């Protein structure tokens, strides 16, 4: 099987930084499904105290791509696990349907990154409070977005980068191919499944000039790989083994 894989490579040094006051806004990680049409996410209504709906992955073994994160400069195969719940029912505002979710998104590599000691399999862990799920009535491509400057609370962690100095965090998940038209009925959306992709961004500390020596040494090791990459979106074929 030779699925099309969407990969984005950029020439940033996100994650390879020292803790300094200077910052730069950067989309430091993104993901896309290896099989874009497979509906790996589900929206489910819940009738329990304090929980009205949940969004989750149909299986934690679904493979996606994670890239541009610290030393993880090349696309890698990982599993994604999204688990979020809504404490209130969806509502109409500005012509769209909205619902607030809190939870987590984790990306775990299928194998440790070559050249790194220890397990180092946590590519990215995101916890969030009050992410906005939004869809137009009758639509089939909702989004889930959070922005710390708009009141959401977002925390990033990774084995590949020190993200503790990150500020102005935001992320956006784009869903598609919903199995039902998304309309409110009895104050609720229908249960449905969908596929997705997303990006994660923040203001990240920039290394001081003295830090560039160490970074350039690291880039020298990766030079053979990086010479073949450009600041562009690249589509390529890759053999994918069955990991189930």
Q: Structurally, how many domains make up the residues?
A: 1
What's the pLDDT, averaged over the residues?
75
What's the main sheet like?
A: 8 strands, antiparallel, barrel
Find the count of extended strands (DSSP E, 2+ residues).
14
Which band does the percent of strand residues land in? over 45%
Q: What overall form do the CA principal axes indicate?
A: globular
Continuous helix count: 2
Low-confidence stretches: 1-24, 208-244
Structural category: mainly beta
Give the % helix: under 10%
N-to-C SSE series? EEEEEEEEEEEEEHHE
- How do the strands of the widest beta sheet line up side by side? 3-4-6-8-9-10-12-13
Notes on the protein architecture:
- By secondary structure, the chain is mainly β.
- The protein has one domain.
- It contains two helices and 14 strands.
- The strands form two sheets. It has an eight-stranded antiparallel beta barrel.
- It is globular.
Short description:
The chain is mostly beta strands. The chain has helices spanning 209-221, 223-226, and strands spanning 4-9, 23-32, 41-48, 51-57, 63-66, 76-86, 91-93, 96-109, 122-135, 143-147, 153-157, 167-176, 192-205, 232-237.
Annotation keywords:
244 residues, mainly beta, 8-stranded antiparallel barrel, two-stranded antiparallel sheet, 2 helices, disordered C terminus
Write the layout of secondary structure elements.
Blueprint lengths: L3 E6 L13 E10 L8 E8 L2 E7 L5 E4 L9 E11 L4 E3 L2 E14 L12 E14 L7 E5 L5 E5 L9 E10 L15 E14 L3 H13 L1 H4 L5 E6 L7
């Amino acid at each position: 099987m030779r699925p099309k894989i969407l990969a984005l490579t950029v020439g940033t040094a996100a994650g390879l930084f020292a803790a300094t006051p200077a910052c730069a806004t950067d989309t430091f990680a993104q993901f896309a499904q290896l099989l874009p049409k497979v509906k790996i996410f589900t929206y489910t209504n819940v009738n329990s105290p304090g929980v009205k709906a949940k969004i989750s992955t149909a299986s934690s073994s679904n493979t996606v791509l994670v890239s541009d994160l610290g030393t993880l400069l090349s696309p890698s195969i990982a599993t994604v696990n999204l688990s979020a719940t809504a404490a209130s029912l969806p509502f109409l505002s500005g012509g769209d349907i909205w619902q607030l979710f809190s939870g987590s998104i984790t990306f775990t590599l299928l194998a440790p990154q070559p050249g790194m000691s220890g397990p180092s399999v946590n590519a990215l862990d995101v916890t969030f409070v009050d992410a906005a799920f939004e869809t137009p009535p009758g639509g089939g491509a909702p989004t889930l977005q959070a922005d710390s400057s708009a009141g959401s609370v977002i925390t990033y962690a990774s084995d590949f980068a020190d993200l503790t100095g990150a500020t102005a965090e935001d992320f956006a998940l784009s869903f598609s191919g919903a199995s039902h038209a998304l309309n409110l009925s009895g104050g609720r959306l229908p249960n449905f499944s969908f596929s997705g992709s997303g990006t994660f961004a923040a203001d990240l500390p920039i290394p001081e000039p003295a830090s560039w020596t160490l970074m350039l040494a690291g880039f020298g090791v990766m030079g053979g790989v990086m010479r073949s990459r450009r600041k562009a979106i690249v589509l390529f074929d890759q053999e994918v083994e069955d990991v189930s």
